[in-house]
Amino acid sequence: MKEEVLSASAAETYQLGRKTAKRLLSLKHKQGAVTVGLTGQLGSGKTVFVQGFARGLEIKDQIVSPTFILMRNYTISKSDQFKYLYHVDLYRIKANDINSLGIKNLLTDKSAILIIEWADKIRDNLPPDTIWISFSHRSIQSKRHRPKADEFLRRIKLDNLNE
Ligand SMILES: Nc1ncnc2c1ncn2[C@@H]1O[C@H](COP(=O)(O)OP(=O)(O)OP(=O)(O)O)[C@@H](O)[C@H]1O
Ligand SMILES: [Mg+2]
User: Fold this and answer.
1) Which of 7, 27, 34, 92 could share a disulfide with 12, CB 3.0–4.6 Å?
2) 43 CA to middle of ligand 1, Å?
3) Pocket residues for ligand 1 (CB within 6 Å)?
4) Does residue 123 lie in a domain region?
5) Is 120 exposed, middle or buried (0-12, 13-18, 19+ CB in 10 A)?
6) Distance 89 CA to ligand 2 centre (A)
7) Closest CA to 112 of 91, 92, 88, 138
8) What is the CATH number of the domain that holds 24?
9) What is the pLDDT of residue 158?
10) From ligand 1's centre to the CA of 44, what distance in Å?
């Protein structure tokens, strides 16, 4: 199922992340880790979404962009099923470094949720039930929406987030 949302501010994108995490917790999951693949240009809102997503999982730690470390993990304490959130950012990864991240091993872990920025770089390695979320800048601002300094429209498409 595909869904499309227009977000007019970072706060809206954050809330969408929060709600998406809550929906995900109620999904029936068969095997392996839950994977969420985020795609879209620089500054399109992926990290903001992850921050809201972590909030939805009741993770209290501050979510910082893992750009230089590639992967950070957080403990999920409020769920019986899930124990860890892995936040991965593949922006700087080189093709031959992908294996060294150990993502393959994580994919078999039922207690893990992986949320991956620039996930299109490893699209073929992710399970078919990956939830894909694409972010894009929307160049035409609506007449009624007058953005504040840091508020711009983003189009966010969610794919595979089945009930
Ligand atoms: N509608 C919106 N949704 C999300 N972020 C927005 C929106 N409008 C403005 N912003 C701003 O855009 C920026 C989005 O940055 P963010 O780090 O989330 O992007 P990103 O997709 O993770 O980029 P990168 O590819 O560099 O990791 C933030 O500074 C945020 O405040
Ligand atoms: Mg980011």
Assistant:
1) 7
2) 4
3) 7-10, 12-13, 40, 42-48, 65, 91, 117, 135, 150-152, 154
4) yes
5) middle
6) 7
7) 88
8) 3.40.50.300
9) 94
10) 5
